């Protein structure tokens, strides 16, 4: 082989090595010399990348200047959530063929997912100003313009499409109407969506996703079930239907559909994440985390999966794992407000108050009108004895933003309690228990304050309600023991003390989350 002919293959090998795409060597024989790229493309569109990934990768290594093969490999990596690798592949395609509009569009998608939204928008706007491409490419351009928030420009692109292509553009039009607040126009599209759904499963999934965002879950599930009749192996349909059924608490159907999606494409991070969401909704947090750990390995650049992992790990009281995942998110984009919030919340749960305070203060500065921020920052301040006034200010700010915020009202009551302002604390906690009668902690703390003020009968009422709601809370049993001793019910007091000691021991051993 001449030096000139060997150069492209060496360049591609370097690209594949840097992005961990393969472990093949260039000295191997090409195992895919007669590969059918059209069939490969169809499998990718159906979400069935596991069936073709190895053959496509081998072909791309053996044919380093085949821009279509590299383009399709980029699509595979994008579907897998490996956005950095997809970006590198699309850049390689454009080095070979700078005029390939589809590669520009898909590169913009990858940039967007990697947090480079400005670059993605600029690339798409420039592409939209170029001479018109064939309808399929124009449709892809309109879809990408929606992604970056250029809704009017997306509608303008769709308006120039031929009639048949406008059917394919239904999700683009629907998403644009939703973003622009055109609810009636969106609803008017549903009959056309239904007509297209049965024969076009991918289109049905795209339309259903828009309807889901519009909180029109029932029409969305109807579309997907129609599509499933004619396309029972469509991963995209199974995946979205399973998610919607999870939200609707139809867990049996959701598990059936999501398990099939995972079986059809076991290396699809999105399917594993959807299965994790189902397990989490059913309280199977360890199973959810196991699925998310696999998804993270498959899609190391997918922020949504890392964010889901953080929330799930926190629910499972695995605070260090949550902090580690949140740190990885911040490495992707250090100033993203949502990532700051997740890192702050995870740090707060792990007991690292300074890390939590720093992250949450930045979050509150970025999003001053989000009650989540002032609540979490207030709790962080409340954990520091010298920061009670700062905590009080944050909780009061939360109640200014949302007077119905029960948790902020509860936390403010605890601040008054800690500062010895008993009357104000009782008033706030009484209000909390009226607004949220099942708030066991508020009932417990209110009972404790009643005991301090010698209101034993009131204390008994709320503490017994609290223990009925949460019999695993050791502190409630301790307060009941104090109460029963005070009113002379020694046997009940002893029983409550024993329960307190047992639960405390179990907690110290890690038996109680």
Distance between the first and last residues' Cα: 64 Å
Number of helices: 31
Query: What quaternary form is this?
Result: single chain
| Class by SSE composition | mainly alpha
How much of the sequence lies in strands comes to under 5%
Low-confidence stretches: 1-32
Sheet with most strands: none
Mean pLDDT: 89
Give the radius of gyration. Answer: 28 Å
Helix content: over 70%
Give structural notes:
With 513 residues, the chain is an all-alpha fold. Helix content is 76%, strand content 0%. It contains 31 helices and no strands. It has helices spanning 3-18, 37-45, 53-62, 67-79, 83-96, 101-113, 117-128, 135-147, 151-159, 163-168, 170-179, 183-188, 190-197, 201-213, 217-230, 235-247, 251-264, 269-281, 285-298, 303-315, 319-332, 337-350, 353-366, 371-382, 388-401, 406-418, 422-435, 440-452, 456-469, 474-486, 490-509. The model is unreliable at 1-32 (pLDDT under 50).
Write the topology of this structure.
Layout: H1 3-18, H2 37-45, H3 53-62, H4 67-79, H5 83-96, H6 101-113, H7 117-128, H8 135-147, H9 151-159, H10 163-168, H11 170-179, H12 183-188, H13 190-197, H14 201-213, H15 217-230, H16 235-247, H17 251-264, H18 269-281, H19 285-298, H20 303-315, H21 319-332, H22 337-350, H23 353-366, H24 371-382, H25 388-401, H26 406-418, H27 422-435, H28 440-452, H29 456-469, H30 474-486, H31 490-509
Helix pairs in contact: 2-4, 3-4, 4-5, 5-6, 6-7, 6-8, 7-8, 8-9, 8-11, 9-11, 11-14, 13-14, 13-15, 14-15, 14-16, 15-16, 16-17, 16-18, 17-18, 18-19, 19-20, 20-21, 20-22, 21-22, 22-23, 22-24, 23-24, 24-25, 24-26, 25-26, 26-27, 27-28, 28-29, 28-30, 29-30, 30-31
């Amino acid at each position: 082989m001449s030096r000139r002919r060997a150069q492209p293959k060496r360049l591609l090998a370097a690209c594949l090595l840097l992005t961990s795409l393969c472990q093949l060597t260039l000295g191997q024989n090409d195992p895919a010399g007669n590969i059918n790229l059209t069939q490969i493309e169809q499998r990718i569109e159906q979400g069935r990348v596991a069936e073709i990934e190895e053959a496509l990768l081998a072909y791309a290594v053996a044919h380093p200047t085949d821009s279509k093969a590299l383009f399709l490999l980029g699509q595979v990596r994008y579907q897998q959530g490996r956005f950095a690798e997809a970006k590198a592949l699309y850049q390689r395609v454009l080095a070979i063929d700078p005029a390939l509009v589809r590669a520009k569009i898909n590169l913009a998608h990858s940039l967007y997912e990697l947090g480079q939204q400005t670059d993605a928008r600029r690339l798409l706007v420039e592409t939209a100003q170029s001479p018109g491409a064939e309808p399929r490419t124009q449709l892809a351009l309109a879809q990408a313009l929606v992604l970056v928030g250029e809704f009017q420009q997306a509608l303008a692109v769709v308006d120039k499409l031929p009639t048949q292509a406008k059917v394919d553009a239904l999700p683009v039009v629907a998403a644009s109407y939703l973003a622009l607040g055109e609810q009636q126009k969106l609803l008017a599209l549903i009959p056309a969506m239904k007509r297209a759904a049965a024969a076009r499963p991918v289109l049905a999934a795209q339309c259903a996703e828009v309807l889901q965002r519009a909180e029109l879950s029932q029409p969305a599930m109807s579309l997907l079930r129609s599509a499933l009749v004619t396309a029972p192996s469509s991963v995209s349909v199974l995946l979205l239907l399973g998610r919607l059924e999870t939200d609707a608490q139809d867990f049996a159907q959701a598990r059936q559909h999501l398990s099939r999606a995972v079986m059809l494409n076991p290396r699809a991070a999105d399917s594993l994440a959807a299965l994790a969401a189902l397990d989490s909704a059913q309280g199977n947090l360890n199973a959810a985390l196991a699925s998310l750990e696999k998804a993270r390995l498959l899609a190391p650049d997918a922020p949504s999966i890392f964010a889901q992992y953080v929330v799930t790990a926190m629910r499972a009281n695995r605070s260090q794992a949550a902090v580690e995942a949140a740190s990885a998110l911040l490495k992707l984009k250090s100033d993203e407000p949502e990532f700051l919030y997740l890192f702050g919340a995870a740090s707060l749960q792990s007991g690292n108050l300074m890390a939590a305070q720093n992250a949450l203060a930045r979050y509150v500065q970025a999003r001053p009108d989000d009650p989540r921020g002032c609540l979490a920052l207030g709790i962080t301040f409340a954990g520091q004895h010298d920061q009670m006034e700062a905590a009080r200010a944050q909780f009061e700010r939360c109640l200014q933003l949302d007077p119905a915020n029960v948790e902020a009202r509860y936390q403010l009551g605890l601040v008054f309690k800690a500062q010895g302002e008993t009357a104000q604390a009782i008033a706030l906690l009484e209000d909390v228990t009226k607004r949220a009668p099942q708030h066991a902690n508020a009932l417990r703390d209110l009972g404790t304050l009643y005991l301090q003020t010698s209101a034993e009968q009131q204390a008994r009422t709320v503490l017994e309600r609290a223990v009925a709601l949460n019999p695993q809370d050791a502190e409630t049993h301790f307060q009941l023991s104090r109460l029963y001793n005070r009113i002379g019910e020694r046997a009940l007091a002893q029983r409550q003390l024993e329960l307190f000691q047992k639960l405390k021991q179990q907690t110290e051993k890690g038996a109680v989350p």
